[in-house]
Amino acid sequence: MHWIWGIVSIATAGSVYTRARTAANEIFLTFDDGPDPQYTPSVLELLSRHGVPATFFLQGERVERHGSVVTDIVAAGHALGNHSYSHPHFENSSLRTQAEEISRTDELLSRYDGQARHLVRPPHGRATLGTIMLCAWRRQRIALWNRDSLDFKLDSAAIVERFRVAPVKSGDILLFHDDSGIGLEALGQLIPRWQKSGLKFSTL
Q1: Known catalytic residue: 72?
Q2: Domain limits of the chain?
Q3: pTM of the predicted model, to two decimals?
């Protein structure tokens, strides 16, 4: 049994992270569940206005439907991440299904940024041991987050207050979504505040 756990340790070491290592005063803004033809362009406009780069974890089936939005994301200098093809619950999916979801989306994303492999963010942020080992075998890292905006259930005022009470710190990975306008409205207030405090933005 010891050799089994040795393999698990090697496979998982450094393959999953919720915060980013950085020597600079940087934070990492990420968006899940796009591309969305209605809201993603507005997010891109906001980021451009403030000179902020971000990482977009995209769903493959939405990439197929809204490729022009993906083109705009890449052209604006942002990074692409893999958020599966159809956003299933990985904890209820076989490893074969998970592998297909990840590889299919990687193939789609590579058409836009030329990268064969991307950071993986499992649907709903749930990575099983099988998911972790699968990504380690594929030599892909899993990027989660440590600061959730909860923009899927809070209004913009509550989100702003949430980050006021617990300020972000260097290395934080922030989770927002670009399939609604709630996070967008909150970020319109938060980004200038974070920049004024001396924080910088970078992609994962």
Answers
A1: no
A2: 13-168+179-201
A3: 0.93
